[in-house]
Design a protein that fits this description.
The complex is a heterodimer of chains A (about 425) and B (about 70). By secondary structure, chain A is an alpha/beta fold. Chain A is about 40% helix and about 15% strand. Chain A is built from 16 helices and nine strands. In chain A, strand 2, helix 6 and strand 3 form a beta-alpha-beta unit. Chain B has about 70 residues and is an alpha+beta fold. Chain B has one domain: Alpha-Beta Plaits (2-Layer Sandwich). Helices cover about 20% and strands about 25% of the residues of chain B. Chain B has two helices and four strands. In chain B, strands 1-4 form a two-stranded antiparallel ribbon. In chain B, a hairpin with a 5-residue loop joins strand 2 (about 25-30) and strand 3 (about 35). The chains are: A alpha/beta (about 425), B alpha+beta (about 70). At the A-B interface, helix 13 of A face loops of B. Bound molecules: flavin mononucleotide (FMN) and iron/sulfur cluster (2 copies). Flavin mononucleotide (FMN) binds near residues 88, 166, 383 and 384 of chain A.
Chain lengths: ~425, ~70
């Protein structure tokens, strides 16, 4: 396998490695082909290459992509499969999928076509949030540029999905693509068994598919040259909050979180905590954040999670409990209100967090209440929305334990402006 | 062959009939939704488990065969 034609050399002290997103991105098809060369002919053997490369899903769970591709390919004899690229990016603090789609849309489209060829699909759907107008425009342009070029292999279309947090869950996407509301459905069947149009459906995050496109071009060995042995390659991270140079960073998986924060202008000494993994993620205290590496297994070892790659820096002087209460309330409103434990438990959790952040007598009871709720909510929804909410709230209780004690003793934090974004909900259709 | 009780949280309407029929394996949460014991159903409770499944008015409760068992 050949190396990329224009190996991009990062400055020795920088963590950034521009594999997916070049330093000076140009979204045109011409620039894309000039940088990476033409995409190889789709082949079934890509499934094994992706397994060998060790690509992990970038939509949050980090599941091995090759395994999922193999499961869909194995069912391709019964019904023609279909590929769904998940670019909905419902995480309010995440921008990596939108950035990828706006700046490097052709790499995602290459990945969709390659994955389709690998699993035996002749159709692929790129799902984007209909409120992300810049993304809708960029991918529309890119699909147009390709018309007639590789048209005979795979038919690609763009779908504009309703703006809801849970709409990006795979069964919700499938249900909506089949004409229903963008709400999760009961499983089984899972999408890889019976998805869009009843066909075996490969749902992959758009960043995942961009990595697949690189594996198709340059092979597994090249892919594994950076990152950790368990989690090879680069990872897109959205660094936000109290960060002078916040934005989307492409780094080898396994970089020290401290180095990333330093590069992004978010010195740990100025932070009260770091939310890693988005609204389903975990808060880390600055001391833990200072010592951890950015990959699934390192973060798991300290009780954290990488999720969709959000790294949000909360500055000192801002109340992590108040931020958590606001996110908990928002997550409660974003649920699909289909499962009792989620529909009742999430608002109850939000209420208890609000008591905790307000301080006074209610605050001391709130702790006990939250622990009662965690056991009644976790693992009891049709999708993992409630589990994500529990994980995030539980981590706040640990990381901001001293604040919680102060609030309970009648010394709440002074009111401060909100930091984490909580966009207004969209519809379900 | 061992069996496991599973509840479909979308279908479940919190009727609570299941917990009445099988209190050994099903308790209700504070909103009336069943928390089912995920361990294999003991042989002596299988009949009761089947009756609980049959009694659910919305077919939200089922018994599934545990793989490898
Ligand atoms: C409530 C909820 C919301 C989700 N939202 C997204 C999303 O916006 N984008 C995404 O790629 N995956 C999202 N996921 C994960 C998808 O269900 C699915 O696992 C993923 O798209 C698979 O792609 P991957 O294997 O490439 O990560 C969400 C999951 C849950 C439970
Ligand atoms: S767990 Fe919550 S968000 Fe998920 S399907 Fe059930 S009600 Fe909807
Ligand atoms: S009987 Fe059925 S609907 Fe009623 S609580 Fe049990 S599972 Fe839910």
């Amino acid at each position: 396998m050949s190396a990329p034609p224009h190996p991009t050399v990062a400055p020795p002290d920088a963590t950034v490695v521009p594999r997916l997103i070049p330093h000076r991105p140009d979204a045109s098809l011409g620039a894309h082909l000039a940088r990476l060369g033409p995409p190889p002919r789709p082949t079934r053997s890509l499934v094994e290459q992706v397994e060998a490369a060790g690509v992990r899903g970038r939509g949050g769970a980090g599941f091995p992509t090759g395994v999922k591709m193999a499961a869909v390919a194995a069912r391709s004899r019964t019904r023609g499969p279909i590929v769904v690229a998940n670019g909905t990016e419902g995480e309010p603090a995440s921008a990596k999928d939108q950035t990828l789609l706006v700046h490097v849309p052709h790499l995602v489209l290459d990945g969709m076509v390659a994955a389709a060829g690998a699993v035996g699909a002749r159709e692929a759907i790129l799902c984007v949030d209909r409120r992300h107008r810049h993304v809708v425009d960029a991918v529309g342009r890119a699909v147009g540029e390709r018309q007639g070029r590789w048209a005979d292999t795979v038919a690609v279309r763009v779908a504009q999905v309703p703006s809801r947090y849970v709409a990006g869950e795979e069964s919700a996407l499938v249900h909506w693509l089949n004409g229903g509301e963008a709400k999760p459905t009961s499983s089984p069947p899972r999408p890889f068994e019976r998805g869009v149009d009843g066909r075996p459906t490969l749902v992959d995050n758009v960043e995942t598919l961009a990595h697949v496109a690189l594996v198709a071009r340059f092979g597994a060995e090249w892919y594994r040259a950076i990152g950790t042995p368990d989690e090879p390659g680069t990872v897109l991270l959205t660094v936000g909050g109290h960060a002078a140079r916040g934005g989307v960073y492409e780094v080898p998986s396994g970089v020290p979180l401290a180095a990333l924060l330093d590069n992004a202008g978010a010195p740990l000494a100025e932070l009260a905590g770091v939310l890693v993994g988005g609204y389903f993620g975990t808060w880390l205290d600055p001391a833990t954040a200072a010592a951890v590496a950015v990959d699934h297994s390192s973060l798991r070892a300290v009780g954290g999670s990488l999720g969709c790659g959000v790294v949000f820096a909360l500055p000192r002087g801002h109340c992590g409990l108040a931020e958590t209460a606001r996110i908990a309330r928002w997550l409660a409103g974003e649920g699909a209100q289909q499962c009792g434990p989620c529909a009742h438990g999430l608002p109850a959790m939000a209420e208890a967090m609000e008591h905790l952040s307000a301080g006074g007598p209610g605050a001391s009871r709130a702790h006990v209440r939250l622990h009662q709720l965690f056991v009644q909510v976790e693992g009891r929804g049709a999708c993992r929305h409630p589990d994500g909410a529990v994980r995030m709230v539980r981590s706040a209780l640990e990381v901001f334990a001293a604040d919680a004690a102060a609030h309970a003793a009648g010394r709440p934090c002074p009111p401060a402006p909100a930091w984490l974004p909580t966009p207004a909900p969209g519809g379900w259709r | 062959m061992s069996l496991q009780l599973v509840v479909d949280p979308i279908a479940c309407d919190a009727h609570g009939t299941c917990a009445e029929l099988l209190p050994e394996l099903i308790v209700l949460d504070e909103w009336g939704y069943p928390i089912v014991d995920a361990r294999p159903v003991p042989a002596h409770l299988e009949g009761h488990a089947r009756r609980a499944v049959a009694a659910c008015p919305v077919l939200a409760l089922r018994l599934r065969r545990l793989r490898g068992a």
